[in-house]
Structure formats: structure tokens, C-alpha cells
């Protein structure tokens, strides 16, 4: 595998994603993981990611003691990107200084000036546009290293020590703003490192089934909450394939139940927990608190379900299946200083950060290493109906994160459901549902003045959000036709009581997140 050591760059996940798109399995772990963790994964290539730190700051993260000896001894290729390059230079006896000019954004570099062709860049002399984002600069290279590219300003842009298998790029090859970046990564991994590009979803499925069978004992029972979305459905189908009817699912809406039973043959029980959720959320306005409460309630419902099952089966279920995805794991990581990872907490995804400590069930998260589009691919292999696979994602905490503030205010939930239904139906009628990654309405906790039927109204505003995305990590807002927006806005104000204003959210991620909370 290609192992990425994460030093906190916002792009780390993207490196993982890009490498997987070359049919090469890659995994990302904290840059300060122990040598044992790294050794256990047995990588053939290690990529040291970028990060917000300077190698000169007192607590700058680094690879563990013994790392250099380990890679040298085992013939492992190492590529440092941005901070990763500086780390290599500094640790191997070169010199990194705080740069005079900081280089951010697009830059032109010239490759293979003064080194022979065939290293990081196949042919010398050419110019490339790349995306830089760094303050520090490598000014003296360790022994045996050569400059493989320089920026037009003269700064070191790429280094290599072919004999010792160490390479470094000062820019970010993984972003689309570095047009030749992917070519360089591919050349590095396939031609230089000789990595096998044979990673297939079928293998992932078979491997996961094996792991689940090994983990769950023959007498153990497993429970799973279905949300009606892609992730939990695929996760449950996979576990069902592994252990059959020792899986027991619960689900909240009557509507989709039939499909679970008839098309997927999943054993499902229907529960209605809305009253319990709403009473716990009453008066709570802080988004993180809301997420934590939902996470806690979520687990307590399982505990009850598990207890009921125990009565029925004569033994307690031991495991809980969750459709946690790789992006959920990356984004919920604790902030720097906590000793776990180096990127910032964005929000507590309810199925990750929000889990209470005293949870009595052990977790099975078979999709934990996959991105959304990979889960859809896996679903296809598992014969999950296309209607499920194409359904827009729905957040674990549900509509609560689409009502900023108190979820129980007025008839916010009722209004939100009506508006959402009109919006989604209009999108389906316009034949654009599959072009959009996710679309939904948001209830705005503000009242505005309107005039409806010659009368002054003082009612709520709602926002419409629709985004395109590859994996939910970054997103762009969807460009609707004006006529579509006009029709939807009219329909909402004319048919939903309590709404007199419709807004369109035109922010990408970043700077916004997809959900409002
Ligand atoms: P954000 O709002 O973080 O959302 O940009 C990215 C994607 O994740 C979904 N989402 C969640 N999914 N548990 C989930 O299972 C959560 O707590 C959660 N929060 C957001 C969101 O709908 C989008 O698709």
C-alpha cells in the first residue's frame, strides 16, 4: 500500500483520493503514528503530507524515531509534499529557513535543471504551472540530494535522492491547480516505485467480508440503524452478506421499509424515536451540542433495541454496524495538541465524534476507509438497487442540522419538510437529480416582512442549497436555471404556510460546509 502520513494539510485526503483513482490502495494515518503502526501496515511507499506547521516551531510534528532506518533498510520509497519535503530536508541534515517571500497560489516551475532526466520528471527543461502554499524554504539540501525543479523565483520546488529513494515536491501535485501534478504522481508511483495498480472494489468487498466474519463470533448478533441513505444501506448489505440473519436492522420510516425487505432481504424493525429526540433537543441552539445530543440519543435507542432483542434471542447483540465513511473520520479528528492528528475539528459527525464513551456495543464500520463514490461502486457489486445508490446523502443528525438554532422552534420541522419536498420534487421533475450531489432546504430562524394576498406578513425565510461534489469533502454550488428557481420559489411561498421568502445558498465548500450546522 501507499501510506500517507498526515501532517494536517487540508489536501491530505485528496492525495489519498487521487492515488486510489489510479487503482492503487492508499491509506492515510496521523503523521505522528508509532513506528509499529507504520510497520504493521507494511507500506511500499510513504508520502509525508503538507501541513500548517514550520519545521522550526517547537512542537512541529514529525515521523517517529527509527523511521529513517526503517525506510532505508526496507527499500521503501518516500515522497515529501510541502511540509513533508521540508521535514525530509531538515531531518536528513539539510537546512530549511523561514522564506523571505511566502509563495502562495499558482507558480511556474522549471523541471530537471542540472539533473539528468528520468527522476521525478521524465524529461528536463520544461515549465509547469503548479500550486504552491508555503512559507518556509529549503536552502541547503542533505548530502546526496539534487534539486529536481525550481520556481521562477529561484526557490527549490522539487528534490530527489534517487539512490536513497527519497523525493520531495514543494508544491501540491494533488490539486487540479497543478495540471501536471497527477502525471507526476502517477509517474512516481508506477514508474519509479513500481507500485501495482490493481486495487479493485471486488477485492475490497471480499476482504471486508472476511474481516467481518473473523471479527463476529458464530454466536454473536449485530444490529444496524438504516437511515434510508446509501452508506447505511451498503454497510448493512455487506454485513448481511457476511453473517446472514444474525444482523438485525432498525429503521425510522415506514415508507422505505418494503424496499429493504423485498429488494435487499434485510431483516428490519421499524421504530419511531422522534419524540425522544425532540424532547432532548428542546431549547438547545449550539450546533456541536445538538450533534452530541443526537449521537447520544442515537446510541441509547440502540441500547433499548439491543435489550429487546436480548429478550427475544436469549443473548445480547454485541456489535453495531455504522456506515461511517472516510471523510467522516478525517473531519472529526481532534485538533492539534490532542496527540491524535493535526487537522482542525470541523464538526462532530454524529457517528464518529459524537459517540458517548459508555457505549456498550462494539462497532463495525466496514466503509470507514472508503469515499462516497467508492461506496456507490461497492453497492453496485452488492446489487443494491440504483434508486438507493443514487439517493442524495442524508446527514446522520437529520433535519436538526438544517434548522440553525432550536429545532423545536415554532413549526420549523413541519415547514422544512414541506419546503424540502417541493424543492426535491422540482429537481426530479426537471431531470437534474443525478447531476446534483445533494440538495435540501434549510429553515432560517429569522422572520421577515412580506406581502401576501394584499396583507402584511411576518413569516419565516427558507434557503435552498444544492451542491455538486465528488466526495463531500469539497463542493461547489449548483447553477440552476433562473426559470427553475422562479418556479420553485413561487410554489414554496404559495403552498407552504409560514414562509414568505426564499433564498439561494451560493457558497462552495470551503469556505462553507455543505450542511448549515
Ligand atoms: P458537511 O456539512 O460536513 O457535509 O460539509 C459533508 C457531507 O456529510 C454529510 N454529513 C453527515 N453525515 N453524519 C453523517 O453521516 C453527520 O454527522 C454528518 N454531517 C454532515 C452531509 O450531509 C454531506 O453530505
Automatic annotation (TrEMBL):
Signal peptide: none annotated. One of its GO terms (cellular component) is cytosol. Pfam families: GATase, GMP_synt_C. Its EC number is 6.3.5.2. Residues 199-391 form the GMPS ATP-PPase domain. Catalyzes the conversion of xanthine monophosphate (XMP) to GMP in the presence of glutamine and ATP through an adenyl-XMP intermediate. This is GMP synthase [glutamine-hydrolyzing]. It comes from Artemisia annua (Sweet wormwood).
Amino acid at each position: 500500500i501507499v501510506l500517507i502520513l498526515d501532517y494536517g494539510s487540508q489536501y491530505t485526503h485528496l492525495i489519498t483520493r487521487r492515488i486510489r483513482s489510479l487503482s492503487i490502495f492508499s491509506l492515510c494515518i496521523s503523521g505522528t503514528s508509532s513506528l509499529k503502526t507504520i510497520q504493521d501496515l507494511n507500506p511500499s511507499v510513504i508520502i509525508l503530507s503538507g501541513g500548517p506547521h514550520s519545521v522550526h516551531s517547537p512542537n512541529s510534528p514529525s515521523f517517529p524515531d527509527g523511521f529513517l532506518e526503517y525506510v532505508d533498510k526496507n527499500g521503501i520509497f518516500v515522497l515529501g509534499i510541502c511540509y513533508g519535503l521540508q521535514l525530509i530536508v531538515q531531518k536528513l541534515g539539510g537546512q530549511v529557513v523561514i522564506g523571505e517571500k511566502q509563495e502562495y497560489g499558482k507558480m511556474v516551475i522549471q523541471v530537471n535543471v542540472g539533473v539528468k532526466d528520468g527522476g521525478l520528471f521524465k524529461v528536463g527543461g520544461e515549465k509547469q504551472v503548479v500550486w504552491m502554499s508555503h512559507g518556509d524554504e529549503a536552502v541547503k539540501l542533505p548530502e546526496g540530494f539534487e534539486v529536481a525543479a525550481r520556481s521562477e523565483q529561484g526557490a527549490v520546488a522539487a528534490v530527489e535522492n534517487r539512490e536513497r529513494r527519497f523525493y520531495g515536491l514543494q508544491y501540491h501535485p494533488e490539486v487540479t491547480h497543478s495540471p501536471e501534478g497527477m502525471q507526476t504522481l502517477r509517474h512516481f508511483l508506477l514508474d519509479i516505485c513500481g507500485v501495482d495498480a490493481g486495487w479493485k472494489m471486488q477485492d475490497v468487498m471480499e476482504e471486508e467480508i472476511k474481516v467481518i466474519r473473523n471479527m463476529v463470533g458464530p454466536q454473536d448478533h449485530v444490529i444496524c440503524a438504516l437511515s434510508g441513505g446509501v452508506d447505511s444501506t451498503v454497510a448493512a448489505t455487506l454485513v448481511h452478506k457476511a453473517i446472514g440473519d444474525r444482523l438485525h436492522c432498525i429503521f425510522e420510516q415506514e415508507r422505505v421499509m418494503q424496499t429493504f425487505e423485498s429488494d435487499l432481504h434485510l431483516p428490519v424493525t421499524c421504530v419511531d424515536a422522534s419524540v425522544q429526540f425532540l424532547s432532548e433537543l428542546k431549547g438547545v441552539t449550539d450546533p456541536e451540542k445538538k450533534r452530541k445530543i443526537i449521537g447520544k440519543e442515537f446510541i441509547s435507542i440502540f441500547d433499548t433495541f439491543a435489550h429487546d432483542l436480548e429478550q427475544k434471542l436469549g443473548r445480547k447483540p454485541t456489535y453495531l454496524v455504522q456506515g461511517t465513511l472516510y471523510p467522516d473520520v478525517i473531519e472529526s479528528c481532534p485538533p492539534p495538541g490532542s496527540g491524535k492528528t493535526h487537522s482542525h475539528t470541523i464538526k462532530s459527525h454524529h457517528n464518529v465524534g459524537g459517540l458517548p464513551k459508555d457505549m456498550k456495543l462494539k462497532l463495525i464500520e466496514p466503509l470507514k476507509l472508503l469515499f462516497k463514490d467508492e461506496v456507490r461502486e461497492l453497492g453496485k457489486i452488492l446489487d443494491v438497487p440504483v434508486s438507493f445508490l443514487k439517493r442524495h446523502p442524508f446527514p446522520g443528525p437529520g433535519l436538526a442540522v438544517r434548522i440553525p438554532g432550536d429545532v423545536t422552534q415554532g413549526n420549523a420541522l413541519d415547514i422544512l419538510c414541506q419546503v424540502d419536498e417541493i424543492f426535491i420534487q422540482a429537481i426530479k421533475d426537471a431531470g437534474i437529480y443525478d447531476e446534483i450531489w445533494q440538495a435540501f432546504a434549510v429553515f432560517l430562524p429569522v422572520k421577515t416582512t412580506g406581502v401576501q394576498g394584499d396583507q402584511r406578513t411576518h413569516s419565516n425565510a427558507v434557503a435552498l442549497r444544492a451542491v455538486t461534489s465528488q466526495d463531500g469533502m469539497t463542493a461547489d454550488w449548483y447553477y440552476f436555471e433562473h426559470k427553475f428557481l422562479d418556479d420553485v420559489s413561487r410554489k414554496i411561498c404559495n403552498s407552504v404556510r409560514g414562509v414568505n421568502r426564499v433564498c439561494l445558498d451560493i457558497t462552495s465548500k470551503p469556505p462553507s460546509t455543505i450542511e448549515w450546522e
